[in-house]
Amino acid sequence: MQLQQLVDRIAAEVTPGGSVADYIPALARIDPHAFGLAVATLDGEVFGAGNHRTPFSIQSISKAFTLALALADNDDVWTRVGREPSGSPFNSLVQLETEQGIPRNPFINAGALVVTDHLGFGASDRLLEFLRQESGNPALDVDAEVAKSELDHADRNRALAHFMASYGNMRNSVDVVLHEYVRQCSIAMSCADLARSTLFLARHGVRNDGTRLLGVSGAKRVNAVMLTCGTYDAAGQFAYRVGLPCKSGVGGGIIAVVPGKCAICVWSPALDARGNSVAGVDALDRFTTLTGWSVF
């Protein structure tokens, strides 16, 4: 089956379900029935269906890219954040106290705040420029309405950052880190944009212009952490159903990597109780089942 036929079939078969993320008011107004799917091959060609050109708030998908940028600089971030699945909600405070301010992994909110702090002031601008280059879309930008809405309701993330600061695990001020973190999460991209931007992980670290962001080992490690930690506390279920490194966001998007073959992005804003897109999981399950492409 050709890829265009495949994405068309999946888009016709999936049914969005669940509820949109209502704790960020700007996200609560998104159409819960929207659905988009894009597959980008190694040469950058994109096959899409549904609302695959519609921009949406990438939210925690940004964490995969900021981790890659941090590792492109050095491996020092691993002295401040772990690499193990959390088994707890993505915004949990409890685990931080028992583990003395060291987040379990870089994809829960506390861990992503540490990665943003590691990148420092200007982290969101650096991420935005990277995504513009990889997607080939120079018009990508931060959704100011979503950023304001998220910052106005950032009490839990502020508490996480202050708690880590009390253990000496913040180098910049909490206000600076929150500003950068909220901006990176509020970048608006389409499935097509995100699929192309994720290709460097399918190419073992090589960017769309042929330069290398990460070594082969570095790309492998980002993919490994995505597989084990990229979908909040449902990573085991994702590995069981989908069998690919994935990173989800409460905006309803999920990116997935098939090493050596392609990158995928699916978007449907209605989420399950763990914060993952219901239709997105179903679509990726169907994709790996129909293609036989998996890391297992």
Describe the secondary-structure layout.
Elements: H1 3-13, H2 25-28, E1 36-41, E2 46-50, E3 56-57, H3 62-73, H4 94-98, H5 109-119, H6 123-135, E4 141-142, H7 144-152, H8 155-166, H9 174-185, E5 187-189, H10 191-197, H11 199-202, H12 216-229, H13 235-241, E6 246-248, E7 253-258, E8 262-267, H14 278-291
Antiparallel strand pairs: 1-2, 1-8, 3-5, 4-5, 6-7, 7-8
- The number of helical segments is 14
Order of helices and strands: HHEEEHHHHEHHHEHHHHEEEH
What is the percentage of strand-forming residues? 5-15%
Task: Provide the structure class.
Answer: alpha+beta
Oligomeric state of the chains? single chain
Distance between the termini: 21 Å
Proportion in helices: 40-55%
Q: What's the Cα radius of gyration? A: 17 Å
Arrangement of strands in the largest sheet: 2-1-8-7-6
Average residue-wise pLDDT? 94
Overall number of strands: 8
Biggest sheet layout: 5 strands, antiparallel
Shape descriptor: globular
Q: Which segments are poorly predicted (pLDDT under 50) over 5 or more consecutive residues?
A: none
Notes on the structure:
This protein is an alpha+beta fold. The chain contains 14 helices and 8 strands. The strands form 2 sheets. The chain has a 5-stranded antiparallel β-sheet. Helix 1 (3-13) crosses helix 14 and helix 3 crosses helix 5 (109-119).
Summary keywords:
296 residues; alpha+beta; 5-stranded antiparallel β-sheet; 3-stranded antiparallel β-sheet; 14 helices; 8 strands; 46% helix; globular
